[in-house]
Amino acid sequence: MTHHLSLTDIADLNGRFDLYGGVHKGLRKAGCDMLCRLGSTDYENPEEAASALSALRTFLMLAAAHVAHEDDNIHGVLQQRGGTTDTVDHQHDDHRRAFDQIEALACSVETVSPIGRRAAGRKLYLAFAAYLAEDLAHMHEEETETAAQLWKTFTDEELLAIEMRIVASMSPEKNMAFMRLMIPAMNPVERAAVLGSVRTGAPPEVFNAIIEFAVRPSLSEKAFSDLAARLKLAA
Ligand SMILES: [Fe+2]
To answer: Given 2, 11, 129, 153, which is the most exposed site by the fewest CB atoms within 10 A?
Structure first.
């Protein structure tokens, strides 16, 4: 990948459907949190290291799932209508290589002799930081270049149908895990909008489960009561 540090012009949403917005906010927050955790973990403490590596593996699993969702549900249909996805396709290939390298470094933290653990943790931290830097630049490309093509090529109804296909392709557990990433990363208006549409589209027991197991545990008390007021949830 050639590197020109540049900020592609950021267009106004102009009321269009923001296909990438919520999930990318969630991945950015989770990635930044993960980076700080990998930097502050005491790798010589076995329980602390194991817990950080377990969180890392959950993050990598969701990041890999996200890349596959975009490949399977966005890039193909955009190409069929004459769009180009070469840059983001290559970036996704780079991501998959990075996931393997990070997993290998995580394994070496687990298998190295105790005296080498701190050094192995440092390598893992630096590799994750480099990956995250590329992912941030990649998501910027998607939310500027690719999103502009999507808005030109598809109606909002079609974009919403793409999102619904992605949601329908996931198990309830995986949907829940993405909610847990996304909700705390969103602002109050976005949280209320997403959960309002979940409430409209899903059975009440599914909505309630999402509130109790994904939303409440991921928000501060203050943020949760703000959301509850916006959604007019019964206390
Ligand atoms: Fe992507």
So the answer is: 2
